[in-house]
Amino acid sequence: MMLTQKEKKVSRSIVLILAGLFLVLWMSHETLAQGKEVFPSKTVTIVVPWAAGGSSDTAARVMAKHLSEIWGQPVIVVNQPGATGVIGSLKLAASEPDGYTVGLLSTAVQTTQYTSPNPTDRHAYTYVIGAYFEPFTMAVKGDAPWKSLKEFVEYAKANPGKITHSSSGAASTDKLVAMAFARRSGIQLPDVPFEGYAPAVTAVLSGKIHSTSATLANLAPYLKSGDLRVLAVSSEKRLSEYPNVPTFMENGVNLKWINWNGILGPKGIPAERMAAIQTAVEKVYAMKAWQDFMTTSFIYSFPLKGDQFKTQIDKDDPVLKEMIEGAGLMRAK
Amino acid sequence: MDILQGMLHGFGVAFTPANLLACFFGVLIGTAVGVLPGIGPSGSIALLLPLTFSMDATSAVIMLAGIYYGTMYGGSTTSILINVPGEAQSVITCIDGFQMASQGRAGPALGISAFGSFIAGTIGVIGLMVLAPPLARFALEFGPAEIFSLVLLAFALVGYLASGSMVKALMMAILGLLFASVGMEIITAVPRFTFGNVNLQSGIGLVPLIMGLFGVSEVILSLEETGPEVEINAKKYAPRFWELFPTRKDWKDSFWPITRGSLIGFLIGILPGGSGIVASFSSYAIEKKISRHPEKFGQGTIEGVAGPESANNAAAQGAFIPLLTLGIPGGSAIALILGALRIHGVIPGPLLIKEHPEVFWGVVASMYIGNFFLLILNLPLIGMWVRLLNIPKYLLYPMIVLFCIIGAYSVDNNLFDVGLLFFFGFLGYVLKRLNFELAPLILGFILGPILESSAKQALIMSGGRLDIFVSSPIATVLLSLSGLVILTAVVSTLRRSKAMEALKREMEASMDKE
């Protein structure tokens, strides 16, 4: 095939342009390799292993909004619910560890190590940074006769089988806390599992069930209106909003367990990207908008990050395992 | 604040340009989501949630609520036109709606469902406004024992859903129960029929099941057709304007079904776990039960469209009562609206009306406006929808499959659900070819788990004593009603089979003579 003079000129300039483009690409790659990379340079995904509308989802969306403002890149929340969070958690563990996919996981990823027929593995993640914790409770109806945990325990001992408890699910963490409370204070507390916190709390509001251990956020509007009363919280210390509500420990019940939520990624996220995420998330935590959100949502700061975060989780794991064994919820072998 | 003052305040809030726009945008999206088969309100609300970040709490809820009740309007469109429900709530509308369309009466069917939806929506909003606090307390009375009795009553009505063989209808109801039993058992968390697959642990989703059985199966059925219908839909519609609207007789036939449907739907919508789909099934069964010509149901009678379509709209309004007065979400879409309020720092609970009157009254007032918008939007669209039937099937049906796939995937962002969609598509095809009715399957699938969990929950509460099911007046009345329904069904079946035997003997005798 013969080329005309003009065509030759055109093809030569095309070659030149392509060569130039390659040069630019190569140079930019070099700068990337030299650690001057801009992270993130594309959309970041936050996996939430729960349905949209729940408390984890709400927090993830508020965080995503602020992160995308900080980064100037879209940050999207993808809900992958099912199997008590196992589906989303397993998918997160299997995703590419490039920092562009992280998840807002919780205590559930620890619980399902022991309860789920398709177990999770807490060692399969990079623990980037903690987000917040939610305390569990022991709550009764506002007009119930028990003013303190002691009175509740005394009544339950004197009237075995009279008191019923509601939980958010058969293998839920609030149930584990309630069952540990019952064992350690020597009372019978038959548990009625519902599907989620809303129906569990409703059952106590209606007076058909006597107590629940839902997280504080699920009780807060009813505490304010006087429809419910909280007898104890499961955190280590009393909570600023409820200085009069004692902890289980103060009541002589050796029980402290909270629902932690944190940003986790698949194992092997490069250190500098992890640091970039930590820095951005800490900026969000310092914002007034985030602090206001924490106040209205009754969630509390959980500032551990990196190795510190992972070490704490590992340290607490035997406590959780004991609670699961005690409640008879270890998965069948 | 009394109701009148509250409403004045509410309209003041709802009539600001920003809120009017939010309301219009919400119902517009809602209509579109309703019409598209497979894509449901939860998925679209989740998708549009970030859009509300820049709004205030009231506008956000006005828009999201508009999407929610807007879908109830559009859901019937494809049920009537192509026998594929736009939403789960409109499954039952397929039965008589599609028959009406086949008889060339698609217009009146669409018209009555738009007017019925409007009337029911308005009744629902009035109920929400006047009765919200007392009704919310009433809903609290429904504990596991009461829910069990109510669901048992709904189950007793299953026989009335069958227009063909009763045995086949019951078989389908049981198949529905079987599908519902897949997943973790609620009390012990023991997996059932999951075959070790993590995707089955939470059970089979409603959207892949319904869209497979009704959507994909219909497309597979159409593959059997040959000849000119494949090119252009057989029923070439060029209806005159007035033919699009219900006739005076239609109105007369529909008046009571719409009224009853609105009331039933509203009451079921308030209850925990009560949904538009239970409301529409109940309305259909009750209309058929009390009709003077039950044999016409399934043949394209307008009551079979008017009742259920009103019921699901009223249920959509009723569902806001527990949310706005107690902070309790009834279903996944309502839970999303609760999430939106939380993001804006408004925590719904017993004090919402007192602390945030602008949210409560603003949203209620916007629902009046939204219902008007929906009627104005939907009436002119009827003519356009009817012409949808003129689209060649080879263009229309692949689009339906596409929307079903998007819908099934978008619920949980899980590809496994798309696989389930096709499984149920083929199953639906086989069942339809064997002349099984699918409505009882859906009823079994939805009610079965509620029946099981409420029975178990009630029995744990009572320490195993059965008298908990008659411990409250509500439970006792509902339980007796279901007993009555079953008894009348058995008696009438026995009578009919006796009459049949007599007829058979007579025929044999006359044949002997010959």
Spell out the blueprint of helices and strands.
The complex is a heterodimer of chains A (333) and B (514).
Chain A: H1 5-36, E1 44-48, H2 55-71, E2 75-79, H3 86-93, E3 101-106, H4 108-115, E4 125-135, E5 137-141, H5 149-158, E6 165-167, H6 173-184, E7 191-193, H7 197-205, E8 211-212, H8 216-225, E9 228-233, E10 258-266, H9 271-286, H10 288-297, E11 300-301, H11 306-326
Parallel strand pairs in A: 1-2, 1-3, 6-7, 6-8
Antiparallel strand pairs in A: 3-10, 4-10, 4-11, 5-8, 5-9
Helix pairs in contact in A: 2-9, 4-11, 6-11
Chain B: H1 3-14, H2 17-35, H3 41-48, H4 57-82, H5 93-102, H6 106-140, H7 144-156, H8 166-180, E1 183-184, E2 191-192, H9 206-222, H10 228-231, H11 248-270, H12 276-290, H13 303-318, H14 320-326, H15 332-343, H16 352-355, H17 357-387, H18 393-412, H19 416-433, H20 439-461, H21 473-513
Antiparallel strand pairs in B: 1-2
Task: Explain briefly what this protein structure is.
The complex is a heterodimer of chains A (333) and B (514). Chain A is α/β, with parallel strands linked by helices. Chain A is 46% helix and 17% strand.
